[in-house]
Amino acid sequence: QVQLVESGGGLVRAGDSLRLSCAASARTFLWYTTAWFRQAPGKEREFVAAISRSDTRAYNEETVKGRFTISRGNAKNTVDLQMNSLKPDDTAVYYCAVAQPGDPARVVGSYVKWGQGTQVTVSS
């Protein structure tokens, strides 16, 4: 059974960086497309970034604007989200999720398993 565990969230100031990590078995990440979404209070869950099992990456360019990078950990059992130049608008709960390969990566409904989320708060 797929289990996803996020970590790395916290309270930071505008301009700071954070690195989020999603942990699961290496087999999970080798099969599924893995993505990060976020959800701010009162807003819909929003696609942030995804990485396919062939290492193709996709980003919500309007939101990320080159500040975030999705990658695999060295041990292949994590998928990380490096977030630089954080802004107060980045404040949200960040979720890791996995989808079957080939399903639309930017669509919430594609994702079959979700982690519990990690809070990121950026103060101005």
Question: Any key phrases for this structure?
Answer:
8% helix; 124 residues; 4-stranded antiparallel β-sheet; globular; mainly beta
Q: How would you summarize this macromolecular structure in one to three sentences?
A:
By secondary structure, the protein is mainly beta.
Structural commentary:
This protein is mainly beta and 124 residues long. It contains two helices and eleven strands; from the N terminus they run βββαβββαβββββ. The protein has helices at residues 26-31, 61-64, and strands at residues 5-7, 10-13, 18-23, 33-39, 46-51, 57-59, 68-72, 78-83, 92-99, 111-114, 118-123. The strands form two sheets. Strands 2, 4, 5, 6, 9, 10 and 11 form a seven-stranded mixed beta sheet that branches. Strands 1-3-8-7 form a four-stranded antiparallel beta sheet, with no helix packed on it. A hairpin with a 5-residue loop joins strand 7 (68-72) and strand 8. The longest helix has 6 residues, at 26-31. It is globular and about 40 Å long.
What oligomerization state is this entry in?
Answer: single chain
Overall 3D shape: globular
* Unreliable residue runs: none
Rounded to the nearest angstrom, the distance between the terminal CA atoms is 40 Å
Beta-strand portion reads: over 45%
Q: What's the β-strand tally?
A: 11
Elements, N to C (H/E): EEEHEEEHEEEEE
Structural class, by secondary structure, is mainly beta
How many separate helices? 2
- The helicity comes to under 10%
**Cα-based radius of gyration, to the nearest Å:** 13 Å
Q: Major sheet, described briefly?
A: 7 strands, mixed
Mean pLDDT: 95
